[in-house]
Amino acid sequence: MKKILVVEDEYYARKSIVKILQESDLDIQVCGEAVNGMKAIELLEEYKDIALVITDIQMKKMGGLELASYLHKHRPEIDILILTAFENFDYAREAFRYNVKDYIVKPIYKENLLPPVKKVLEKQEEKSRNQEKIKNYYQWEAAKNYFPVKTIVAHEELYKEFFSYNAIHQEEKFCIVVMQEEELVTDVELVNRIIQEKYRGFIKDFFFSKINEEYVMLLSGIECMDNELIVQEKVKSMLSYFCTCKHMNITMGVGLVYSSKEKVHQSYNEALYALNQRLIQGWNRAYFYKNMDGYEARIGKEEEIKLESIVRTRKEKEINQVIHSILEDIIIKEESAQKLYMAVVEILKILGNYYAELYQNEDIEELKDIKVMFSRRYDLYKFKHIEELENYLKEMVIVICSGKENTKKKSKIVEEIVHYVEDNYYKNISLRELAENKYFMNYSYCSRLFSQETGMTFSKYLIQYRLKKAKTLLENKDMKISFIAFEVGYNDVSHFIQSFKKSYGLTPEEYRARKKIE
């Protein structure tokens, strides 16, 4: 229901206008009457949601033209209709520069009042619908960046949205290319524009994923897709352009060629696997899964025995030296990412087995939590440089060398998770995702560690932080509750209101009203 304010100094004329409006079938409410512009401004302070002001143009103290000027400056969201006599028409025309939507010539009847009122309200509804569409569009555009490829392939509608070309040309052969920048993502729109303008001939589908900060491309539509040299030529031409002309530090991984939609995710995983080779051979290169060595080589027996022995001394420097030597040997020989992967698994296995021995006489649940810390099959793709991987292994060595005393110290991981929440509270954050995909820890262990050090579960901590941010935003009286909910990470406004009231005993509107009084 739209609220209307009527401003007219002639008593009977004003009452007649109000009566016509109230008896109409329009979805409106006359929330106030004023005898001049000054009184109207007072009512506008009381009613913040007035949609339309119908005002006479000539009144004592403040006329309609001055009121229109005030509204144009201070309340531009309010539409205005001007009432005027024939002889004042030229004067009324000046008001159109103040966002006046129409004029109504006196005397006022149902026939000349309701049509312009209806027209203004219909335009407001259309504007509101368009704003909602824009809001939904931007929400969708933001959400699109967080769909995993596996989810996209599993849902037909998502697949048509992200892989529109392949969804139509399912008989054509394709391969997935994944590109990642070394530092922070520079300009997604720029990359998108370059793909559209220069490489649309063979990059048929393209999108950016915020999950891993990666560009996902479907390469198709060229002859001889089975000819690996042609595919390599296309990919390397792109790589060269981005590196040389746009001065971007990137790597590209390329999966195998397939002709079935069901293989899109597999080709994507192969592209990620190929990208791991950058840890060994560096950036600004393209890596092809077809060229990867599939041999699952372990570290040498001599190195294995040496590491097991030095771990038992719990000498941090010496352990790190052995680990560095193992990794350095792989780099120097430019061996495969698979060799690196197996070496990391073996190192973590040795560290984990010894750490479990330290707790063999402890409570069985405690022992379980400690062992799983080292048990996950680590994804090298989360590391951009070999130094990051080595630093992670050093963190595990610190755990080994400090023994049980380490559990009493402030965990660096928990500190990082807290900082991550502060920077990303508005996103869809999951501790499981953070533990397994960002910090490479077992979820159960990470959850227990977080609760021990913060005194609450991760979900409770996240809710409290979001609501704290919401309180700050509520001090801005112009921000809608629905927008605030979205800004702090709630997609469901009713859920936001319930959470806020549960925590503070007031709804967001009640809290805002109380702050205004204070």
From TrEMBL:
GO terms for molecular function: DNA-binding transcription factor activity; sequence-specific DNA binding. Residues 3-121 form the Response regulatory domain. One of its GO terms (biological process) is phosphorelay signal transduction system. It comes from the Bacteria. Keywords: DNA-binding, Phosphoprotein, Transcription, Transcription regulation. Gene3D superfamilies: 3.40.50.2300, Homeodomain-like. The modification 4-aspartylphosphate is found at D56. The keyword Transcription regulation applies. The keyword Phosphoprotein applies. Residues 415-514 form the HTH araC/xylS-type domain. CDD domains: REC_YesN-like (cd17536). May play the central regulatory role in sporulation. It may be an element of the effector pathway responsible for the activation of sporulation genes in response to nutritional stress. Spo0A may act in concert with spo0H (a sigma factor) to control the expression of some genes that are critical to the sporulation process. This is Stage 0 sporulation protein A homolog. It comes from Catonella morbi ATCC 51271. The lineage of its organism: Bacteria, Bacillati, Bacillota, Clostridia, Lachnospirales.
